[in-house]
Every structure is written in C-alpha cells, then in structure tokens.
Design a protein that fits this description.
With about 150 residues, the chain is mainly alpha-helical. The protein is built from eight helices and two strands, in the order E-E-H-H-H-H-H-H-H-H. The longest helix is centred in the C-terminal third of the chain and has 16 residues.
C-alpha cells in the first residue's frame, strides 16, 4: 500500500493508493472515515492555529476540559449546540467548520472539490469576465504614507 499527500485548505492528509485490482468492498472499508474524527481534527487545527490552549477554549465555550479533549480526539460525538458553543469560543462560524469537514470527507471519498466557480456558471451571472486583474485591484492598498 502506498500513500500520497493530499492538501485541503492548507492541511495535508495522506490518502492510500492501492492496486487497481482491489474490490470496491475493500476500498470502502479502507476509506471509511468517522465524522466525529474529522470534526475533532478540524477543531484542534483551528484552536492550534490560534495558539490557544484547551483550557482557554473550554472556559470560553463553557464546556469541561476533558469533554472538549475527547471531542477533539474523536472519542465523543458533539451535539450541534456544543459545536456552536465551541465555534463561538473560537470565533469561527459553524458553517466554516462544517465546510472544512465536508472538504476533508470529500477528499477521503475521492471526490474532487472545485476551489472556484466553474466558468460556465460564472458567465451565466456575469456579462463579462475580464482576463486580467483591473488596475484598481492591482494597486497596493497601503502607499507608505500615513
């Protein structure tokens, strides 16, 4: 079995790549991902990127330190109310957390998630899509003068 790196929103995961002769049943068993594990991983990643401790977040979310730790390790299934409270403590919208989890699940399922809106769909809503960045957006926002 060989593993290859897959990056989703800057986080690298390793996906197993096997022989083409494997059955679909074997592939399904190998790639089964538990939702609570992915939710916990995303929560931990967000907390660590913010440089915060479990104690700080558990206090702000009004959740016990041990329970939050179990949620992050994927040992406990968090309710929607608890997830909302943790997201509020982390100042991250619940929708963003769920989007990140969804992207990770898609990668685990081998589904390609586009990072941009397809051109055909864009043209339906915008009359003209410029090929180059307009000058007003290419200038620096800060000119160096105060």
């Amino acid at each position: 079995m060989v593993k290859e790196p897959v990056s989703v929103n800057g986080v690298v995961r390793w996906r197993e790549v096997g022989l083409a002769a494997e059955t679909k049943h074997d592939q399904k068993e190998r790639t089964m991902v538990l939702l609570r594990h992915e939710i916990g991983d995303v929560l931990r990643d967000v907390r660590q990127r913010q440089g915060r401790t479990l104690r700080e977040v558990s206090h702000d979310a009004r959740v016990s330190l041990g329970y939050l730790s179990e949620v992050e390790r994927g040992q406990k299934e968090a309710s929607s109310e608890l997830l909302s409270s943790i997201c509020s403590a982390l100042s991250v919208p619940l929708s963003l957390l769920l989007r990140e989890v969804s992207d990770r699940l898609a990668v685990a399922d081998g589904v390609t998630v586009p990072d941009t809106v397809p051109t055909d769909l864009s043209r339906e809503f915008v009359t003209e899509i410029p090929d180059e960045v307009p000058e007003q957006f290419s200038r620096p926002l800060y000119s160096g003068r105060v």
